[in-house]
Amino acid sequence: MPVNRSARSGFLRRGIAVVAALPLLTLAACGYGSDSAKSDSPKQKVAAGSKKIDGLDSVKIGYFGNLTHATALVGREQGLFQKELGATKADYATFNAGPSEIEAINSGSIDIGWIGPSPAINGYTKSNGTNLKIIGGSASGGVKLVVNPKKIKSLKDVKGKKIATPQLGNTQDVAFLNWVADQGWKVDAESGKGDVTVVRTDNKITPDAYKAGSIDGAWVPEPTASKLVAEGAKVLLDESTLWPDKKFVITNIIVRQAFLKEHPKAVEAVLKASVEANKWINANPAEAKAAANKQLEADSGKALKPNVLDPAWSSIQFTNDPLASTLNTEAAHAVKAGLLKKPNLNGIYDLTILNQVLKAEGESTVSAAGLGTS
After folding, report:
1. Which of these, 137, 148, 99, 136, lies nearest to 120 by C-alpha position?
2. Residue 334 CA to chain centroid, in angstroms?
3. Is the peptide bond before 223 cis (omega within 30 degrees of 0)?
4. At a CB cut-off of 8 Å and minimum separation 6, what does 195 contact?
């Protein structure tokens, strides 16, 4: 198996350890299920007289309640997926963690999903390249190291402190472990103990952990980073500054391989909606930000306040480019951390349909960086 035995349980673990100082906090489950009925608006209804695609009653789409998944949030809120799917119903499921979404792909509970690079890499390698394909990009950036300014005033002060990441082996956890190693510090990846203590904490409770003083900072995606800043934390490092051109993949679009083979027209419809969503987001940032926040409120019952939403949104770039070369680098970081054996990522991408859609829209095609389906 591509994943080390010691790390395997961490990659699949859905219950994330909560720091002992927070015994009264309840960890939100990483489970999943259809939530299509709870936030449907007229824009999301099946249009009268429309036809089914590929004879399908529905297409099941998954995403996270993060702003880094705003392409999916906006596509849903604006009814773009439903518009392109015609009489085939767009069903949705929301997730809190990558491993649960990979399980949903594997079981057929979802067909297409927005997800971070690390779980996509892990899911692909664990199945020996048989379960999923990355079929498009969605977002870059939106990850920051935020810290308690009373305890940490410079990057060197991070040594000896307690820093939260969302989950063992997730995208931000791998990035932080790699950064720590680049500083010359030692941390055991599995336990999180060493020159820095890595505290794996669900994003939903990280702000409470920070307020309680149980962590000194966090390497987290938006909007969690900006939620911490609203509690008095300071941005010490924006991960984008560590990458060439300040671009790195934070969200991909994946599909079940069987679904891609059997229903390419449905996949094309979802990708058309995704491209349309990104185009609208980039042309109408204020309206798109409001739409994403409206969908977050529909999904979670709570909208983001402006002092969180505004800085979070401004740090994310929305792109159809999967930034494939950075995926390879992120895989190398996981290997370096001891969380993954050197993976064979050949064929992880199939950008054929996406590039057809982009050509039809008069936009530039994107590259798989040598990792595409031949």
Report:
1. 99
2. 16
3. yes
4. 159, 160, 180, 185, 186, 187
**Helix and strand totals (H; E) in the chain:** 14, 11
Q: Quote the DSSP letter at residue 2.
A: -
Residues 206-261 pLDDT 10s:
999 999 999 999 999 999 999 999 999 999 999 999 999 999 999 999 999 999 99
User: Does residue 17 have a pLDDT over 80?
Assistant: no
Measured CA to CA, the distance from residue 124 to residue 1 in angstroms comes to: 11
Report CA torsion sign: 318, 322, 323, 327. positive
| Residue in 143, 73, 78, 71 with CA at minimum distance from that of residue 296 | 73
Residues forming a β-bridge with 113: 62, 254
3-state secondary structure of 183: coil
- Using the structure block, give the residue that is written with the tokens 């518009």: 83
Cα first-last separation, the chain:
24
Contacts of 110 (CB under 8 A, 6+ apart): 32, 60, 61, 62, 93, 101, 104, 256
Is residue 284 classed as helix, strand or coil in its secondary structure?
coil
- pTM assigned to the model: 0.86
Q: DSSP strand E in the chain: where? A: 58-64, 89-95, 112-115, 132-141, 143-147, 162-165, 197-200, 217-221, 234-238, 249-256, 316-318
Matching residue, tokens 């993060």: 66
Map tokens 């990792």 to a residue. 371
The DSSP H or E segment spanning 307 is helix 306-314
Q: Are 7 and 340 spatial neighbours (Cβ–Cβ below 8 Å)?
A: yes
CB burial of residue 301 (10 Å; 0-12, 13-18, 19+)? exposed
Torsion of CA 255, 258, 264, 265, to 10 degrees: -90
Beta bridge partners of 237: 145
| Residues found in the chain | 374
Give me 364's structure tokens: 């530039």
Q: What is the predicted pLDDT for the residue at 35? A: 56
Contact 118, 174 (CB under 8 A): yes
Tokens of 112: 């297409």
